[in-house]
Hints:
Elements: H1 6-15, E1 32-34, E2 44-47, H2 60-68, H3 77-88, H4 93-107, E3 112-113, E4 121-134, E5 141-152, E6 157-165, E7 175-177, H5 188-192, H6 195-203, H7 205-214
Parallel strand pairs: 1-3, 1-4, 2-4, 6-7
Antiparallel strand pairs: 4-5, 5-6
Protein name: Lipoprotein
Amino acid sequence: MALLLPAVLLMTAILAACTSVPLPATIDLRTIRLAPIAEPLRYDLNVFAAPGMGMRIGAYDAVLARDIARPPVPGDKDAAFTAALADQAGLRLGAELAAALGETLAAAGIPLAAGSEAADATLAIEFLYAGYVEQPFRPFTPLVMVEIRLTAQDQGLLFRQRYTYGTMPYLHDDLHFVPEDRYTFKDEAALLGNATLAARGLRAAFPLIAADFRTKFRPSR
Length: 221
């Protein structure tokens, strides 16, 4: 993935908007529909050349999202890594995170609506980045960036939160979780040679995100 110059990152920081909208305390949701999820088409292996180049600020979000929405070039390292995670380890980030959030909502007494069933709100999950990154003096570590939004039937925004799971620097009001050391890899060969553990390192984000998401809801009466 092409890296943005620090000057461009600084400009986007100036233009950046708030990334978090808390759920109103007075709202009473009974059912929620899950919007179609765009699964990442690639899982990146990235080497960031300088500290801070991984910071997600402003328009940089769109660059990251476009990157994982493009299939990797056949034969490159991202293609091999993506195939290993998807085929060998069966990784489906979108479906698996949706399942974790669905269980969280069910525990709060708010079922996910099925099919064309009417719902009070729609839950959207958007991945901005998924893969492993290496920084100077750091091994490869997992990085998942995801935004979760909840909109009402009239399309009004009820809730928005961005989550960063990784050791990368972050800005704004993203909620940040740090992966465990056991999910670090010394080099690309180690990652490609243990797709199961690499996938487990990305999946470890799900319970952390779901636990925070659970705090936004009170049980339905």
